[in-house]
Amino acid sequence: MAKTYFNREDHDKIPELMHRNYRNDDFWKIIPAWAAVTRGEFSSHLWQMKHSIRKVEQVKKALGARLSEEIYNDILAGQKITPMNIRITPYIFALIDWENPKDDPLRKQFLPLGSQFLEDHPYKMEDSLSEDVDSPVPMLTHRYPDKVLFLPTTLCPVYCSYCTRSRIIGGSTETMEKETYGANQKKWDDVFAYLMKSPLVEDVVVSGGDAMMLTGKQIRYIGENLLKIPHIRRIRLATKGIAIFPQKVLTDDDWFGAVKEIHKLGQAFGKQVVIHTHFSSPREITKWSQMAMDRIFNAGIIVRNQAVLQAGVNDKVDTMVLMTRQLGHMNIQPYYVYMHDMVQGCEHFRTTLREGVEIEKAVRGTTAGFNTPTFVCDLPGGGGKRHVASYEYYDEENGISVWSAPYVKPGQHFTYFDPIHKLSEAAQKRWYNEGDRKKMIDEALGKV
Q: DSSP states of 189-201 as a string?
């Protein structure tokens, strides 16, 4: 007679059910410096912030003999190249596999090694998405007629090595001078004044930086001012915090209370206030993630996820399927997976457009359609987000795709380029010859 139930032992052996299991051990105790830290201490958002890793020397101090001299020197070398400074919560730092840090997807995202970097693409851009070009007032990008991007701060609880806004996030480094900023109410008021005079705008993304670095008082101020603008219908609070700093949701009652208040106020006005978060790897997901999401879900707040497709992090079908199912199981709607932007210091993360198309093709059908992410390319030059298969022309041999954005930038064409190191040897040679390079791009543009 066939079984009609699974016991726990069976449950753990079935690959299709792996997404229901959450790591819940005292994993941080493998870090020598935190071996005596209690679960109660580790649960505190204040403890997490106080003990965040911000310097290479702190990496060595925390790990002691567990950190090899080779990896330590490689991290030092990485800091001379990367456009991003180090900032890692203990939660994420302890989840890194320190037996094999070189291949670990979390280490790759937050703690770059000098040996991993590749030469930047000839067409890399500091502001790949032209956010500054489409900025009518400081801290605001207005590209789509009915949607704006509001950047009230450049501070984050972690600094991601693959950040699309590395030109302003994370403080100056040896390779990049930046003009970072914190909260500035006067400039926020200028944003609100602009929006009052922009009746087409219905949707505001509050990002940065990270909305989790705003105080409860600041969340209330921003939320109330936006909701009072009659034509604003939707607010999205963007934070990676649920993925890398779930303790904030669980123990900072002032911050979470402010988010709940703004959500409730939005409902009273018949408007949406939701959270957009940013899981990029199943390795980021633990029991802490589930508990944070339980608190958010019980408050009635919708959460959607936006990931970035990254080589060595989530570019395998099984990895993306697992993460997609995990997110759905935690009541997070997988929303977007982005092709990596063409920004400085990130060539080793980038995949080809074909890889993005094929991974989405494989993921689609593994779970419900509304819980399946759309894979998009956010076009260099400000064309906006386009489905990965909606290009006008794709020269796979030379890694050149041509796109249009009829409603966003009518009459214009945009180009996105595959990483050169993934092309054939002949194509690589053409790319490193300036004349051949221009000819290839002109030929591709001539096809549309």
A: HHHHHHHHT-TT-
Per residue in 93-107, pLDDT (tens digit) is 999 999 999 999 999
pLDDT tens digits, residue range 385-441?
Answer: 999 999 999 999 999 999 999 999 999 999 999 999 999 999 999 999 999 999 999
State the Cα–Cα distance between residues 118 and 116, nearest whole angstrom. Answer: 7
Residue 29 per-residue DSSP state? G
Q: How do the residues of the chain divide into helix, strand and coil, expressed in percent and rounded to 5? A: 40, 15, 45
Burial class of residue 275 (count of CB atoms within 10 Å of its CB; 0-12, 13-18, 19+): buried
Contact 376, 336 (CB under 8 A): yes
Do 356 and 407 lie in a common domain?
no
Residue 127 lies in a domain: no
Residue 84 to residue 154: CA distance in whole angstroms: 12
**Which CATH number goes with the domain that contains 205?**
3.20.20.70
| Any domain includes 409 | yes
Residues 185, 218, single domain; the answer is: yes
Are 20 and 43 found together in one domain? yes
What's the CA gap between 150 and 84, in Å, rounded? 21
- β-bridge mates for residue 206, sequence order: 150, 237
Number of domains in the chain: 3
CB burial readout 233-271, b (16+ within 10 A) else e: bbbbbbbbbbbbbbbbbbbbeebbebbbbbbebbeeeeb
Q: Is 166 found in the same domain as 192?
A: yes
Residue 16 has pLDDT above 80, yes or no: no
Length of the chain: 448
Look up the domain containing 401 and give its range. 391-448
d(CA 201, CA 382): 18
Q: How many CA atoms lie within 13 A of 14 on its CB side?
A: 11
